[in-house]
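Side project, low priority. Logging it here so it doesn't get lost.
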Amino acid sequence: MFNRAICILTALLALGAPSAFAQAQVPKALPAVLVIGDAVYQQHAQMVRGELKSSATVIFATWPANILPSSGSAIEQLDLLLGLKDATGNDVPESKRQTWKVIHLNVGLGDLIHRVPGLKSHRSLPHDAGGIIISAADYGKNLDTLIPLIKRKAPQARIIWASTTPIRSSSGNWFKLGSEIEFNQVAERVMKKHGIPISDMHAYALSILDMKKPNALDPFFFDSKPLPPPMAASILKALKP
């Protein structure tokens, strides 16, 4: 009788063991990271996704077609960028919305592209032909509006601000050399006000670029050198408890 009980108990343990083992092997859902930025960040976000594939799910926010990423358009399109609305403007059901753990954010180069004055839509125009950009003060006001909006709409997310990368030249005089410096100073003040950490992408890009050798595709060309290292490092830091 005793031996029979032992056999039954052993059989039950054996039946339970595979189930317990299988459950232990099911990976936990990875935290979701949203990268909001312009074309500079779109291509490099793909590399960051690969580097962090075991730590997070990295997604690049999709902008509407023909919309220039800028501080103003980020405010207008924020529900779409955060995945609260779909491309048709309809609300995404709460059950299908992503809960963002980290949001890596930059808007800046779009604000620094000179454009035709008086148009609501963006049309580039060289600065030496009358093209204009928004003022640094208005850029600051936009960021001062944008950050609280993100905090309210994505309350669980840790926001990282990425400084705007350097401007060396512009083949069509759409950008002015060094114009990003003042805008980065304005952004720094706004981020400090709201307690947002800054990933200094500007300093990192300066460290890998030859600023005396501009390229016609600037400021979207980085001499074939990667930008992901500081992006990945800042995201990993924000993912820590």
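Brief comment: The CA atoms of residues 199 and 234 lie 6 Å apart.
Revisit when time allows.
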